[in-house]
Amino acid sequence: MQIWEQLREKHRGKTFGVLAGGVLGMIYLFFGLWRMLIFVLIVYTGYYIGKKLDRNEPVFPVEDTWRWLMDKWRLFR
Asked: What is the chain's alpha carbon radius of gyration, rounded to the nearest angstrom?
């Protein structure tokens, strides 16, 4: 029981991400598409997003990506 409490309190985002990824992956598998790599990718994506949420980081770094694109486009001016 302590494990579930610890997961809920300290790793809420990662736990939710893995569970959501697992549910989506199982739905994907039950509809007849037995591609295990897709299943693992879905679960890992849920884990990655949950890990970012636990650290209070943005899931997709919009500002960094925008700066990177602007630096690349300056070459053509």
From this structure: 18
Question: Alpha-carbon distance 21 to 41, whole Å?
Answer: 9
**pLDDT tens digit sequence for 13-66:** 888 888 888 887 787 777 765 566 677 788 888 888 888 888 888 877 788 888
pLDDT at 61: 79
Query: Mapping DSSP to helix (H, G, I), strand (E, B) and coil, where does residue 72 land?
Result: helix
Structure tokens at 23: 């549910």
Only one residue has tokens 């809920």, namely 8
